[in-house]
Design a protein that fits this description.
mainly beta; Thrombin, subunit H; seven-stranded mixed beta sheet; six-stranded antiparallel β-barrel; 3 helices; 8% helix; serine-type endopeptidase activity
Length: 228
C-alpha cells in the first residue's frame, strides 16, 4: 500500500504521510495556516515564525495528506500545547523551530505515521527534496564558505545553513516556513526510508536566491527535553 502511493496512484499531496497541517479553530471552521512534520506519535516540528504570526495559539493538526479536507482516512488531532525554541530570534530567525505536543497519540496507518529524524551532526545528504505547490522540488545544501560570501551576515551558528533550489532558469520557487526538507534513502525493491533533515525557515522565491534552513540534527536534545 505504501509503495502504491508513490507509484502514481495518488497525487503528491496525498502521499505525505509524515506531513502535518497546523490549524486554528475559528467560529465556523478550522483554518490550516502552517505546515509541520510528524516526528513521533505525539510530536510535530514546525517553524516558530509561522506559529507566532497569529493572535491565538494553534488548536489542531491534520494528518493524512495536505488539503485532504473531509476524506475518511485523515485525522484531526487536538494540540495539547506547543513550545517555541527559547532562543528563537524574531529578527534574525535564528532557532526558528517549534514543537507541538498532541493531546492524543497518532495511530499509525499507511496514510499517516512518524517520519525518521536525521541525527548526523557532521554530514548532510546532498539530494534533498521539499514539497511545494503539489510536487516535490530538489533543493541542495551549500558550503558554509559560499553561504558566508553570498549572505549579508556570516553563518556563525551550526544550527542554520543555506540551500539553493535544484532548478535552472528563471521562475519562482516558494516554500512555506516549517516546510520539511527530506532525504529519501532508497532501500530494496524500490522502497525508501524518509528522513527529516532540515526545516525551512525563510528566503525569497527567486530561483537563484539563498534559502535559510535549520538542521534538525542540532535540535535532538531539545526535542528530548521538551517531550520528556
Amino acid at each position: 500500500q505504501r509503495q502504491q502511493r508513490w507509484d502514481g496512484f495518488q497525487p503528491v499531496q496525498r502521499r505525505l504521510a509524515h506531513v502535518a497541517e497546523v490549524g486554528w479553530q475559528g467560529v465556523n471552521e478550522i483554518s490550516f495556516l502552517c505546515i509541520g512534520y510528524l516526528i513521533s506519535t505525539r510530536a510535530v516540528v514546525a517553524a516558530a515564525s509561522c506559529l507566532i504570526s497569529f493572535e491565538y495559539h494553534p488548536s489542531v493538526v491534520r494528518l493524512g495528506g495536505m488539503w485532504a479536507h473531509d476524506r475518511p482516512d485523515i485525522a484531526i488531532i487536538r494540540i495539547e500545547d506547543h513550545e517555541i525554541h527559547p532562543q528563537f530570534n524574531q529578527t534574525t530567525f535564528l532557532h526558528n523551530i517549534a514543537l507541538l505536543r498532541l493531546a492524543t497519540p497518532v495511530t499509525p496507518t499507511v496514510t499517516m505515521f512518524p517520519g525518521c529524524v536525521w541525527q548526523n551532526v557532521t554530514h548532510t545528504p546532498v539530494e534533498l527534496q521539499v514539497p511545494a505547490s503539489g510536487r516535490f522540488e530538489p533543493i541542495h545544501p551549500m558550503y558554509r564558505s559560499d553561504c558566508d560570501e553570498r549572505y549579508v551576515r556570516p553563518f556563525v551558528n551550526q544550527e542554520q545553513i543555506c540551500m539553493v533550489p535544484g532548478v535552472s532558469g528563471p521562475g519562482e520557487y516558494c516554500y512555506a516556513p516549517g516546510g520539511p526538507i527530506v532525504w529519501q534513502k532508497m532501500e530494496d525493491k524500490n522502497l525508501f526510508t524518509e528522513y527529516l533533515v532540515n526545516v525551512y525557515s525563510h528566503g525569497s522565491c527567486n530561483s537563484t536566491n539563498l534559502r535559510i534552513v535549520h538542521r534538525i540534527s542540532m535540535y535532538i536534545d531539545w526535542f528530548k527535553e521538551v517531550l520528556g
